[in-house]
Amino acid sequence: MKTNIYFDNACTSYPKPTSVPEAMANYITSLGSNINRGCYDVAYKTEELVFETRELLKDLFNGEDSRNVVFTKNVTESLNFIIKGLLKPGDHVLVSSMEHNAVMRPLVQLSENNITFDRIPCHEDGSMDTSAIIPLIRPNTKAIIMLHASNVCGTLLPIKDVGQLCSKYKLLFILDCAQTAGVFDIDMVDMNIDALCFTGHKSLMGPQGIGGFILKSHMINKLNPLISGGTGSISHTEFIPEFMPDRFEAGTPNIPGILGLNASLKWIRDKGISNIKEHELSLTGHMLEELIQLESSTDKIKLIGRRNIESRVGVISITTTDDELSNIAYELEQEYGILTRVGLHCAPSAHKTLNTFPTGTIRFSFGPDNTHDEVDFVAKSLKTLLTR
Known about the structure:
Elements: E1 5-6, H1 19-31, H2 41-61, E2 69-72, H3 75-86, E3 92-96, H4 101-110, E4 116-120, E5 141-147, H5 159-169, E6 172-176, E7 195-199, E8 211-215, H6 255-271, H7 273-298, E9 301-304, E10 315-320, H8 325-336, E11 338-339, E12 341-343, H9 348-354, E13 361-365, H10 372-387
Parallel strand pairs: 1-11, 3-4, 3-5, 5-6, 6-7
Antiparallel strand pairs: 2-8, 7-8, 9-10, 10-13, 12-13
C-alpha cells in the first residue's frame, strides 16, 4: 500500500514550495507589522514586500499598473467584487455553460435586481465555439464573464478569441483564471482582458486565503467598491479613496498570505511556466492513455471531456458504471492512499453540459510534484478496484 498520492491540485496545490511557509513564518516572527499604518523600518520593509508582490502579479499577467492589483481572500471574492460592483439593474451578461458557482451564484443572486444572463452553450467535452456567442448578444449586454479552464474536466476555453470578439462588440471581458494562472501564459493586453480574477492557493502555489483581481485602468471607475473602511490613507475623510489600490482594499490585509504568494510567484518565475505546463500535460497525457485503455478493457468507467492533451489543463474526470463514485473515491484513499475529489465540484452548470449531473465525477488533478510513477500506480489501483 502506497500512501499520500495527492491528485487534488485543482482544489488546492500541495505540497507548496518550501519557500512559501518560510516566507510566511519569517513575516510573523521577524516583521509582524501592518502596511500603510506604521512609520518605522519594519512597516516599510513589509510594504516593500507587498508592493513587490503586486509587481510580480502585474508582470505575470501583463497588467497595466501594479497599483491596479487588488488583494482579496480568493477568486470567489474577487468575482463578487467585479460582478456586484459592475452590474446594475437592466444589465445583461454572457457566461459559458461550464461556469463554476463562483460566477453563477452571484449572477443568480443579482437576477432578483433585474440583472439577466445567458449561458453560451458548450459541447459535451466542455469546448466552445465562439460563433455561439454572437446570437446571444443584446443591446444591453455589458460583459462576458468566463473561466479559462473547467475545474471539472480540464477543457480550455478560447479566451483569446473571446477577447477579440468582446473588443469588436464593445463588451467587457472578465476572466476567471483559477485553474490556469501559473501554468498557462495569460496576457491581459493581448487577450483583451478588462478584469482578471485569480486565487493564490491553486496553481499559483501559494497559501489559502489569498487571491485578488487586476483591472485595466478604464475599469476603476466602472466598479463600485464592495467593501469600505480604513485604508491607512487620507484618514481625515470618511469618503472612499479614489486612487488604487485603496479604492477596493479596506481593513487589515492578509499579509502572511501575500508574502507566501510572493514566494510562490518567485518559485514559478524561477522554474518557468513553460516547464510546469510541459510536466503537468505530460502527466495528463499519460493518465489519459491509461484511462482510455481501462475504459475499453473493463467497460466500467467513462472518461469525461477531451481525450487528449490538446486545449486542456491537468484535470481529468471519470464516472463509473457499476458503483457509487463516492465508494470508489473512498476506497482509493483508504486502500491505496490516493487522494482525489468526488462530486459536483461546485459546478452544476458544467456537469449539466458534460451530462454528469447530478451524479458528478471522480476528479484527478496534477501538480508540479506529481510523477509518472504515481500515475502508473493510480491506474493500476483503479483497475484493481473496478475488476475485482
